[in-house]
Amino acid sequence: MFHFAKITGDKKAMYEQLLEQTEHLLAGESDWLANLSNAAALLWMQLPDINWAGFYLWREQQLILGPFQGKPACIRIPLGKGVCGSAARDRQTYLVPNVHEFPGHIACDAASCSEIVVPIMDGERLIGVLDIDSPTMGRFDEIDRDYLEAFIEVLHKHIDWSKMA
């Protein structure tokens, strides 16, 4: 069993350790539900200054709440609505320093002030999005974007998306 100590250091060093921990945590398992559940828990445990971390999955032509850590959340998000729906529609990462200024923002937790959403693609197929919220304005930057996109690549190595119901 890998020891998951709280990681420290500058942001890049922290993310490097997070990616290493993710590799160890998911090694030998390919089930999407188990791996997304552990991935959400790891993000929640290791990322400083966040109040929600989890996944929305593309089903029934909308995003539906998946594994997460944090307060209860919105269950269904239409494509193109809010930050998650916009990132899914555009298939690109959205880094929002102030969610209160984002047109159509869906406020599941009034304490959230900034957000980053990374789409999860399997080739051309939309799987869903990784969504992370913070109670701090401007919490996320390009370093977060780069490393959370790399985090999604680690998930791809360990999840058999074809078995996702």
TrEMBL record:
A GO cellular component entry from the record: cytosol
Entry's Gene Ontology molecular function annotations: L-methionine-(R)-S-oxide reductase activity
Record field: transmembrane: none
Superkingdom: Bacteria
Signal peptide location: none
Residues of the GAF domain: 52-152
InterPro entries assigned: GAF, GAF-like_dom_sf, Phosphatase_reg/MetRdx
UniProt record similarity statement: Belongs to the free Met sulfoxide reductase family.
Protein name (database record): GAF domain-containing protein
Native species: Collibacillus ludicampi
